[in-house]
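Appendix B.2, paired examples.
Example (i):
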Amino acid sequence: MGLESSKWAIIFLVCWLYKNVSCNSVEQKIYVELNNTVPCVRLLNATHQIGCQSSISGDTGVIHVLESEEDLEWPLSKGPNPPYMVLLESSLFTRSIMMKMKNESNRVAGVAVVVPNTSPPEFSPHTTCPNENTGVYSDNYGPNLAHCNTTVWNPRGNGLSYEEFDFPVFSLKEDNETEFIKQCYLDHNRAVNGSAPQYPLCAMQLFSHMHAVTNTPTCMRRNDINFSINPEMVCDPLGDYNVWGSIRPYNDTVFGHKENESVVIAAARLDSRAFFWEVSTGAEGSVSGFVTLLAAAQALREVTHEAPPTRNILFAFFQGETFDYIGSSRMVYDMENGKFVIDLDNIHSVLEIGQVALHSGNNLFLHSDPVSRRNNTVNDVVKNLVNNLQSSTAGLGFLLVEPNVSQPLPPSSLQRFLRAQPIPGIVLADHESAFNNRYYESFYDNAANLNLTYPSDLSPEEQLEFVTHTAESLTDVATVVARALYKQAGGDESRVNTIKADPKIVTQMLYGFLVSSNNSWFQAVMAPELKNILKPSPPEYYVGVAMSSTPTRLVQYLLANLTGAATNLTQSQCQKPDELPNESRQMYSYLWVQGIVPPNSTERDSFCVRASVRLTKAVSPAFELGEYASKDYSTWTESRWKFIKARIFLVASRDLEMLTLGVGVAVLFTSLLVTYFISTKADVLFSSTREPASAAY
């Protein structure tokens, strides 16, 4: 075979091997990637940073499964192979244990928390006094009521969410991955009779390096330093959009005070949080309130069209309230500065729906501000609102009562309105003093916390329609809220008893917001381009930094469908309604929704909804004003990061690693010597004898 033929044969062989021989990378042979993990991330405000992070190259430690608090001795002092990656059950995820590991962070590389499918008796990583520094009470306003001096609202709070940890903390689901990790620990790491385990050891590596450090003023200043064409941001302000709508529309291009206009505001918050990033479910903390308000808005649709009250009713759903009242402070700021359709002087009164799903006994509680009620005018309006609420419970099996003692408002959006001026208001809640919610701002505040259960033999579609006891209870609360709002707005008293919330709508909303957002009803009321936000799981209620989160969009479209009107507009007309007579984008929003799939059809019956529902920014005024160290407004930001990753692998002993390194170095130098020898003797080793040229005759 000639030289040219040999070349082609080698090329063909290499190509065949490349195409047909399958081989895993070395990395895949060494590491097992963990997919069902959620990190704790870094957040910053005007003065602090909280949360968790890893080093820039990730943190690695030998896995130790913590079985009790006494077992901490092994990773913190006794264990011979630090640093350790501590795996613990949620029952051991306590302040005591976490702070001990924080104080010995040189021996702790990270923490992995196994989140079970069942909830502990109680757990709240929030503070005992939520939003204490940005509410209305201070040294200048009700100083004896400030800082929860008289009422500790969240006594179960352990404050873990507001601690800073210099190591990564991840959550793991109770699934096959977690069992694999535990088995790896048992096979390689468990000490027998107190003796040190033998190598190789099972180790875990966590990546969650955060770019932002110190506080919000520092990270925002670094955002403004542009040394490249594509500057890298290190943090972003928390924020989203508020959702609001009114029974009578407002021209959204005309801002400021409206003469002879009086408005009753009905409010609820949309967001929640948890220790871990984007696993907040907020069932009692937020969902119970805004579902009740949505149901009340729907109950008012017919009566307010037939017999409009003298005052307007504005439904407001605030985002970012967990983080120092981002949404409500922004709406108040806009009202004060002529950037909203009404101003503070147009507000007659405020009714806020707080946590309302866990009322024990037959009472819900009406909280008001004792300081502003010293003003006789304010007190009279509050008394009237209390009377309207209490008189609306007839025949519903529960009572609305005021707390027996003088105490401050619970954490609520109303406090931000009171910071601006004395506005009459009530906060409706299921607790007289301390929260009934045992899982305030934690990942356990889920459907189970509201006893939202379904018979096991029901299909998902049947569960969507099944009216639970929780839905019945919230329906009654929504009925009371709707009736009271109608009376407070000056509606026709003779029509009050006809106002009733729909239990079917309430149960569908609870299912969609707490079990699965990807259901037939949510699909029908959403726009086609937004159908991908619907998942076979509940939405996440952490406000985040990506504007227009899933809860915001869902509430926007639900409020529009529940209070608006279906039109005969085509899709193109729905997108450009100003080209038609009697239609105006200035007065209404026009939303094209998918609609239902009729029987014996595969095509959806899409249509256009006209409603007075709007979105307005829920970003703290501190970022509008550039006051990143503000004491008046929320300054919370979220750090950016490159990637989040977790993996496990077997690690060899230090001696074996050094031996391997030594052998590798020896092989390297031997190769260099051989290469040098061959290159210097190449003319001898690779010379070839040439045949003499043929003689010519």
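Example (ii):
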Amino acid sequence: MQSCESSGDSADDPLSRGLRRRGQPRVVVIGAGLAGLAAAKALLEQGFTDVTVLEASSCIGGRVQSVKLGHATFELGATWIHGSHGNPIYHLAEANGLLEETTDGERSVGRISLYSKNGVACYLTNHGRRIPKDVVEEFSDLYNEVYNMTQEFFRHGKPVNAESQNSVGVFTREEVRNRIRDDPDDPEATKCLKLAMIQQYLKVPLSSQNFVECTWQREEDRLWGIWVQGGRGCSEVLFRPLPGPGGHPAPLWLFPQVESCESSSHSMDDVSLSAFGEWTEIPGAHHIIPSGFMRVVELLAEGIPAHVIQLGKPVRCVHWDQASARPRGPEIEPRGEGDHNHDAGEGGQGGEEPLGDERDEDERWPVLVECEDCEVIPADHVIVTVSLGVLKRQYPSFFRPGLPAEKVAAIHRLGIGTTDKIFLEFEEPFWGPECNSIQFVWEDEAESGPLTYSPELWYRKICGFDVLYPPERYGHVLSGWICGEEALVMEKCDDEAVAEICTEMLRQFTGNPNIPKPRRILRSAWGSNPYFRGSYSYTRVGSSGADVEKLATPLPYAESSKLAGPR
């Protein structure tokens, strides 16, 4: 376990001198998603009174986005609480009555579900043929058996052979193909259908075919966090405990929202095979929040005074090594007198007077946070919770001085991609009551390798549509998924074009030319959002959980502070 505390009263530690004299450090949290809100809430509960949260967008919540349409709430971002045993989000939701709105059917299976556990997934080909149920079940069993094998390389230290290219997608595709081709009992027509299904399964977000929906827990590192779910992958909001107000943690803490969701990669071929089993499942049932996942955000924000959170406040640059180098130029001079958390004349929490910004020459602020509106906020500590997508795009200009080489390398090695949802609402269902999903299988992709489509064929990456359940809550709504570069192409299209293409696909695969266009469409656009630049991160080939640890190690690496690297 790495130690984050200073070595105490060492006189050569420039980061602690000002704190010992002032007593109360100023902490700035960048980002008001679940990570930022949870960090701010924890700081306030531990007695920190000078805390500011800077949020670039106009609302809190990050990649939680609940949209109310009629009587139903639809989630464009985080949707699931995956696992209940020891999951603080589950306990928070349960304690506040967010899981009580259930139907009789949901109570019978002990979960609040977005998709029916009953019924049948309809696998349809682009020629309008339905794949027989027994063929689907046989293939699903085979695929899941191979999928479980991908976990063993990390968990049991199995060597990765060169043929797999250390890729989950390459290994899975070739292993499943070889087993299908070697099966003496299947006729050639059945083998062709199963070979085509491989590509459909590799498109599905963590797959509806019983993929392990997981989050990262490394007990040996004694990390703690808040686990939430967006789409069908998992995210871990990770931050380490800070010492109390009298402690001396390092000035800059990088806690980018790094998750494990291999579905968000452009291709499963990009996902590291050797690191795949590093992510483990939180045990217990899976739940959604009928009233909207935003309720969790609101609960987290309840204990945070309104003046702490500043909305519409994008950050341009974090000047994080001010103890050794004062920035030059008038544009990064600290703001004037007074506590920037409060309006003029307003007192701090608990009736305390706000602390002034005046410091002696040898008490320079360790960090200056330069905002896009040219305001500069001085701080003792900064916690950065922006997404990995933002870091990849902006890290060269976002930090001054630049980040150490090992952090830059970790940013490059880890992957992040886009998973988008497409909701289609119909006047009446054209699917039967037994159908819980419509899955698209392209027969001409049976022998294809990694799937990359030209922009005009982006729709081929849509793996299928799930029927939202129960209908009395959602109406007649299908929920589709699209991942990778093709999702970014979809985001550039207008609603009318996406609705038209989705309708044509449904007509083609069902063989029903009379399916009407949906009366309403709702979709996400996480990849093109400048404050996220993606949905989930994942362990790309060449990366591992150790890269998350490298990003989380606080800066600067002061010799007198016991900041050992990850073990």
